[in-house]
């Protein structure tokens, strides 16, 4: 971008180039402002909503928002996953044996996946 700025400064008769440079600078500045202000806006909104909760009806006090939630329920994973079935359906031999399976492997290769199949 400095090369374009130097070129534009050397040639004042290119107003279109100046407009392009100014537009690019505005776009980069707006991206910067968005990256900075968006998280601040979310934090400000969370503080605003916490302070608006009436203390008489609130289950959680405004000063206890820093407490983290703890999961205590034990989840039941039934039925257990069957590894033999998974390998038969999604394994290398199943993928290679059909045209669509070969297409899946090629797509994963081109995408750069380290694991091509189960």
TrEMBL record:
Keyword vocabulary terms for this entry: Ribonucleoprotein, Ribosomal protein
Entry keyword annotation includes Ribosomal protein: yes
Gene3D superfamilies given in the database record: 1.10.287.3980
Top-level taxon: Eukaryota
GO cellular component: mitochondrial large ribosomal subunit
InterPro entries, alphabetized: Ribosomal_bL34 (IPR000271)
UniProt entry tagged with the keyword Repeat: no
Gene Ontology terms: biological process: translation
Record-stated family: Belongs to the bacterial ribosomal protein bL34 family.
Protein name: Large ribosomal subunit protein bL34m
Organism: Papilio machaon
Highest classification ranks of the organism: Eukaryota, Metazoa, Ecdysozoa, Arthropoda, Hexapoda
